[in-house]
Amino acid sequence: MRAVNRKPRTPRRGARGQSLVELALVAPVLLLLIVGGAQIGALVYGGISVATAAQEGARVASEQPIKSSAYVVSGSSTAVGPGATCPAAGNPVCSAVSQAKGLLTSVSTTIAPGTAPGSGTSCPPKSVGDGYITVTVSANVPIFIPILNNLLANTPGGSYRTMSDTVIVRVEPCTLTNGS
C-alpha cells in the first residue's frame, strides 16, 4: 500500500526556464495568427457588406425608378448617366444602400441607368426607361496590421483595401409600375 502523504515532486532546476523560452517562441506566432484572422475577417465582412448594399440598392432602383432623385430630369439638365453619384438624403436607393452597409463607416454609391430617362415604352418623361440599371458600391476597409500592408492593401505599404461590387438589374417596366 502507498502512503497518502507523499512529498510532491519538485521540477528539475531548468524546467521552469525552458517553459518560459518555449512560450516566448510560440506566443508571437500565435498572436500573429489570431490578429491576422481578425484582419481577414474584417476584409471578408467588408466585402459581404458592400455586396449586400449593392444588391439592396439595385433592388430598390429597379422597383422605384421614378421615385429616386438620381433619375429626375429637370429642364435640359439631367442628374443621371454614367458615373452619377448618389445624391444627398431623400433618394431611396441611397437610403437602402446606407441601411444595408452594416458597420462600414462610409460607402461610395454610383447609379447609372442603361437608357436615357423617359426613353422606354410608355414611360413618364422623368423616369428611367425600360432597360437595365447599374448600382456600384465601394468602401475602404482599413488594414490594421502593419506587417500585412504589403499583402492586403491596394498599393504596397497602403493602409486600406477597396472593396467594390457592381450589380446590374432590369428595371421594372413602366407598364407594370405605372412609372412610380
Number of strands: 5
Rounded mean pLDDT is 75
**Distance N to C terminus:** 92 Å
Over all CA atoms, what is the radius of gyration? 28 Å
Count of domains? 1
Profile the largest sheet: 3 strands, antiparallel
Order of neighbouring strands in the sheet with most strands: 3-4-5
Number of helices: 4
Query: Helix coverage percent of residues?
Result: 25-40%
Estimate the global geometry from the Cα principal axes: elongated
Helix/sheet category: alpha+beta
Catalogue the unreliable spans: 72-83
Q: What pattern of helices and strands is seen along the backbone?
A: HEEHEEHEH
Layout of helices and strands, plus pairs?
Layout: H1 15-63, E1 73-74, E2 77-78, H2 92-100, E3 108-113, E4 132-142, H3 149-152, E5 160-170, H4 174-177
Antiparallel strand pairs: 1-2, 3-4, 4-5
Summarize this entry quickly.
The protein is α+β, with helices and mostly antiparallel strands and 180 residues long. It is built from 4 helices and 5 strands, in the order H-E-E-H-E-E-H-E-H. The longest helix has 49 residues, at 15-63.
Descriptive account of the structure:
The protein is 37% helix and 18% strand. It is an alpha+beta fold and 180 residues long. Strand 1 and strand 2 form a beta hairpin. The longest helix has 49 residues, at 15-63. It has one domain (18-177). Strands 3-4-5 form a three-stranded antiparallel sheet. A two-stranded antiparallel ribbon has the order 1-2.
